[in-house]
Amino acid sequence: MELWFSEYQTKNVKLSFRIKEVLYTTQSKYQKISVYETEDFGRILTLDDLVMLTTKDEFIYHEMITHVPMLTHGNAVRVLVIGGGDGGTVRELLKHPVEEIHLVEIDKEVVETSKKYFPSVSCGLTDPRVRVFYEDGIEFVKNNKGYDIVIVDSTDPIGPAVGLFSTEFYKNVSAALNENGILVAQTETPILFGDLVNKIYKDMSTVFPYTNMYTAVIPTYPGAFWTFTMGSKTVNPLSKEISSSLPDIDTKYYTKELHKSYFILPPFVKNLISE
Ligand code: AG3
To answer: Can you count the helices (H) and strands (E) in the chain?
Structure first.
């Protein structure tokens, strides 16, 4: 018998993986968490039946959400990650000379699942520079400040993540950031959710004088083409040179040579966010 996992990316579009085995599934306080062993994409982690990562292509998302803001900033030492309980973003952050990483994940079971089933992703979570808080990131940013970078490594804007896409949240993040700090958030796909991408960009622009979108190809996310949006009070990523003295980082997708070009948007995306 053939076993398949499908994500309904919209009501009318599914992405399906033939699976060898269902390794784990549970209902946590917040969501359904599942782990599948697939034929072609390695292991996949889903939350409420939406693909969060596959071991085959997770490096693209985690490198791009981390190294683009880190290299733009140039000397970030204190970083906050909201969501990201799988640990992929933390693993990438640890390739930089950071002093302190706070990871705020609402669902402890996501962290535990990743530690058990995704050692290559969660490996940085036990590093002494990392502190994990099992709290709601929306509340956490109101009470914790002084970050160089805030990374919102969230799920889609449904359920508990809705508030992570609100203007009020962006304002609180702005207050939690140092003067030359940078917010970066995963901001969905312009292929299938154009209106949403437009709205997120607009909302971020009302809070941050510099709001810049960049993109990456992520085969297993809806539309296979994804956006990230960076906001800052003082840093314009387009005019900032990437210092050649920064250490080389071990990456498979991100490269310093392409850094600035990631912000050059295809005309359909540029038009979408200027509408
Ligand atoms: N990032 C999940 C992005 C949203 C994917 N959406 C979807 N499959 N419908 C968080 C997980 C990686 N740390």
So the answer is: 8, 12
How much distance in Å is there from the Cα of 153 to the middle of ligand 1?
Answer: 8
Q: Calculate how far, in angstroms, residue 61's C-alpha sits from the geometric centre of ligand 1.
A: 9
Which residues are CB-contacts of 5 (< 8 A; sequence separation ≥ 6)?
16, 17, 19, 34, 36, 38, 44, 46, 49
> Which residue ranges have their beta carbon within 6 Å of ligand 1?
7, 50-53, 61, 84, 86, 88, 153, 155-156, 186, 221-222
Map tokens 């969230």 to a residue: 154
Q: What pTM value is reported for the model? A: 0.98
Identify whether 153 is a catalytic site residue: yes
Amino acid residing at 268: F
Do residues 39 and 161 share a domain? no
Kindly give the confidence (pLDDT) of every residue in the chain, 275 residues in length, as a single tens digit, with 9 standing for 90 and above.
899 999 999 999 999 999 999 999 999 999 999 999 999 999 999 999 999 999 999 999 999 999 999 999 999 999 999 999 999 999 999 999 999 999 999 999 999 999 999 999 999 999 999 999 999 999 999 999 999 999 999 999 998 899 999 999 999 999 999 999 999 999 999 999 999 999 999 999 999 999 999 999 999 999 999 999 999 999 999 998 887 777 789 999 999 999 999 999 999 999 999 98
23 and 123 share one domain: no
Probe residue for ligand 1, chosen from 62, 91, 154, 155 as the CB with the greatest number of ligand atoms within 8 Å = 155
Domain housing 30: 4-54
Both 96 and 182 in a single domain? Answer: yes
